[in-house]
Structures are given as structure tokens and as C-alpha cells.
Amino acid sequence: MINKILRSIFDFYKFYKIYKHKRKIVFYSENRNSYEFFEGIINKLLINNYQIYYITSEFNDPVFKNKKIYSFYIGYGSIRTIFFQFFNSEIMILTMPDLNNAYIKKSKFCNNYIYITHNICSLHMGFRAKAFNGYDTFFCVGPHHNKELEEIENLYSLKIKKFNFGYYKIDKLLSQISRKNLKILLIAPS
């Protein structure tokens, strides 16, 4: 326990010692599973020589093994709350709904909070009302998200930038299938 607290404090200071203009793109991961949703965009950014800064609440996040990514642990407690209050990079990318509605609040020092969805479902199913109202930009899986976001914008008088982004997990699966010339067997609930 004490190791986690000390590590979160150390990484908090280590992150904020980096000049703001250097850490333009920051990802926040709630747990070790978040990376699989970020992987596609992180790979593209790394190919184009962007520096990636990755904040995680998972003590043993596998991202720490990737030496191309600057990774920092902030835990789930007070350090994380303080971290988000003072967050001052240009862009933060998350997969977490309810930004500004629940325990994680937006910082007035960040220019653009981007949401990458962790599923392809409707935004009106499985999410609370106003779950995406705190975001400035939304990476849409498909046209259904565009339509649903337009409804959300009209309902709450918002303006959210929308980008057709797709869904990396499906893209990755399809590329593996085509490379290996495999057949697909789909088993799914009704």
C-alpha cells in the first residue's frame, strides 16, 4: 500500500516537472484494459514521432514495459483527484464516460478532452444521461454515434467535435483474419 502511495506521489511530480509544451498528448487509463482501446491511435502517433504520455491508475499496468511511452502511475485516490484538477496539457484522451459528472473533474488548464469509446454500442444504452457532456471531442465508431451525439448536442445545447474514427479492436481483428486467410465464426448473444 505504502509503495503505491509513494509511487503515485513520485510520478505526479515527475510528470509535472516536464514542460507543458512537451507533453501535448496525454492518455489516461483507469485500468490495465484501457490500452487496447488506445493502441491504434498510440501506434499511429508513435510512427509519426509524437511523444506519448500515459497516465494510469493501475500499479502494474503493462504499458510500463513499453519504453517508447512515457508512463506515470497516479493511483485511484487523492493524488489522482489533485492530478486532474491541475492537469495542464493541450490534449487528454480517455475512455471514461461521465467526465465532470463523477469523481474525475475537468481542469480549466486543458484545451481538449477527447473521448475514445470502449465499445460500439449506442450512446443511449448503458450510459448515464450527460455521460459525454464533459468532452470537447468524440471519436465516433460509426454513423450511429454521430446521430446520437447530434441529439445530445441539441438536448443540452452543446457543441462537441466529432470525428469518424472507427473501432481499432475490430480493425485489428479484420487485419489478422485477412493476413492469415482465416474464416470467421461469429458467436454472439441475440
What does this structure look like?
The chain has 190 residues and is an alpha/beta fold. Helix content is 34%, strand content 17%. It is built from 5 helices and 7 strands; from the N terminus they run αβαββαβββαβα. Strands 3-2-1-4-5-6-7 form a 7-stranded parallel sheet, sandwiched between helices. The longest helix has 15 residues, at 2-16.
Helix content: 25-40%
> How many DSSP E strands?
7
Kindly estimate the percentage of residues that lie in beta strands according to DSSP.
15-25%
Which runs of at least 5 residues are low in confidence (pLDDT < 50)? Answer: none
Radius of gyration: 18 Å
What general outline do the C-alpha atoms trace?
globular
The helix/strand class is: alpha/beta
End-to-end span in angstroms? 43 Å
**What is the makeup of the main sheet?**
7 strands, parallel
Number of helices: 5
Mean pLDDT: 92
Order of helices and strands: HEHEEHEEEHEH
| Strand order across the largest sheet | 3-2-1-4-5-6-7
Quick recap:
This protein is α/β, with parallel strands linked by helices and 190 residues long. Helices cover 34% and strands 17% of the residues. A 7-stranded parallel beta sheet has the order 3-2-1-4-5-6-7, sandwiched between helices.
Q: Characteristics of this structure?
A:
5 helices, 7-stranded parallel beta sheet, 190 residues, alpha/beta
